[in-house]
Amino acid sequence: MARRAKRQGPDNHDRWLVSYADFITLLFAFFVVMYALSSVNEGKYKVFNVSMSQAFGTQGAAAEGGTMKLTEQEMYFKSLVDRRNARLAEKQRKLNERMQKLNETLTTKMAGFVKNGQMTVSRSNRGVTLDINASMLFMPGEAAVQAEAVATLADVAKILSEEDMSIEVEGHTDNIPISNAQFPSNWELSSARASSVVRLFIEQGIVATRLKATGLADNVPVQENSTIEGRARNRRVAVTVLAPEVEAATASPSPQE
Question: Looking at the DSSP assignment, which residues form a beta bridge with residue 68?
Fold first, then answer.
């Protein structure tokens, strides 16, 4: 009796999916690593370079004359970091120019008030601050902006409306307590004064989402409250144009001695 031939199943035409899946997984891992390099530091870079060298079978840096030479991989990723740092440095330079121009514009436009001591303009890491004495904006113990001060604040708003940065308006008082039906304490008074300035800025065309009103009472004095002059100086509204944060530059890897 003849032996029955062994039946063979149909050829498996899907075997290529295994190799394809491995390739996609490797490609995904590569892009994850590239994304992680957006916040690369020297330690992470060295670990990554060693892993890449091992994975692709490339030779590490070879020592010649006591100096480590960069591999092509190291030179490539170093160039990425250097270009990124150059972009960040240029972005920071342009921001510094904007803040300096704003500082100079406010100083020039408000020169008369700065000269007689009713305003001061200063620049810090937070941004550019315009300090306005409360006496030129409000009656004692009140939070409504005086009519004669509206035009001045409108001029300030016109300058600020040309920018797109956030603005923080802070109300400050001296340390003499206030207590009446409208303002139980200096907290309410300082908050109401900051809010009055914010409302006026909005009426003058500044987008509301850029603005923030804060009342700090007598907790951030600029002078001692022990004198009449010091208390008068502490009663103020501070308008700060906040400088946007620029991401810090990343250290580029360098050959090891």
Answer: 63
The separation between the first and the last C-alpha atoms of the chain, rounded to the nearest angstrom, is 82
Domain extents in the chain? 17-59+67-91, 98-242
Sign of CA dihedral 218, 220, 224, 230: negative
Distant-in-sequence, close-in-space partners of 123: CB < 8 Å, separation ≥ 6: 99, 100, 103, 129
- Give me the architecture of the 98-242 domain, per CATH: 2-Layer Sandwich (3.30)
Please state, in angstroms and rounded to a whole number, the distance separating the CA atoms of residues 142 and 193. Answer: 8
- Interatomic CA distance for residues 201 and 130, integer angstroms: 14
Categorize the per-residue pLDDT at 14 as very low, low, confident or very high, splitting at 50, 70 and 90.
low
| DSSP letters spanning 67-126 | EEPPPHHHHHHHHHHHHHHHHHHHHHHHHHHHHHHHHHHHHHHTHHHHHTTSEEEEE-SS
Angle at 244 between CA 91 and CA 238, to 5 degrees: 140
CA 218 to CA 193: how far, in whole Å?
A: 13
* Helices and strands (H, E) in the chain, number of each type: 7, 7
Q: Rounded to two decimals, what is the model's pTM? A: 0.65
Residue with tokens 């620049």: 123
pLDDT score at 71 = 72
Is a pLDDT exceeding 70 seen at residue 40? no
